[in-house]
What we know:
The protein is of the alpha+beta class. It is built from 6 helices and 4 strands.
Amino acid sequence: MSKGKRELSADERALWRRVGEGVKPLDRLAVARQQTKVQQSKIASAPSTTIAPKPRPPKAAAPPQDRGAERRVRRGRVEIGGTLDLHGHTQVSGHRALVRFLSASFERGERTVIVITGVGRLGEGVLKRRLPEWLAEAELRPFVSGVASAHRTHGGAGAFYVFLKPNRSRSAD
């Protein structure tokens, strides 16, 4: 007797014999034909649907126009105007906070800010993935000149430098 298996008792063997007497073998070919008929009738009766094309994702925010500015920020030679930490935000509240923060930063004449999204679970955070889409939206496009991932001293993979366009109306004051 092998480990984990047991022998059937006399009553159990008698029960299996009775069950087996009433069973007839399947005709496998007939079963296969029946399954094919059922599948074909499902296909024929299924309503015809047209598949709508997937909506195109919004164009991601462009890299900074001035790569030198990006290098200077990474080296600590450019002042960071402000920081927005989106930890704990939902997509809706995070988007609202981002719009308020970037418009206020633009009005103050700041040129570079940091937005911290966090890395998310397994590096696939929703806010991290959505940030470039949000920055490319028509609402924020007038403020943003580019975006780049931040140096690890500024948050690494869970943070981004957002480069803002110069506020021409502010410089006229």
